[in-house]
Amino acid sequence: MRYLLTGGAGYIGSHTCVCLLEAGHEIIVIDNLSNSSPVSMERVEKITGKKITFYMGDCCDEEFLDEVFANEQIDAVVHFAGLKSVGESVSIPMRYYRNNLDSTIALCNAMSRHNVKKLVFSSSATVYGANDCVPLREDLPLGVCTNPYGWTKWMNEQILRDLVKADPQWSVVLLRYFNPAGAHESGMIGEDPAGIPNNLMPFICQTAAGIRKELQVFGNDYNTPDGTCIRDYIHVMDLAAGHLKALEYSLAHTGIDTFNLGTGEGYSVYQMIEAFERANHLTLPHRDAPRRAGDSPISYADPSKAHKLLGWKAVHTLDDMCRDAWNWQSQNPTGYPKED
Ligand code: NAD
Ligand code: WQD
Question: Considering 3, 149, 233, 270, which one is annotated as catalytic?
Answer without folding.
Answer: 149
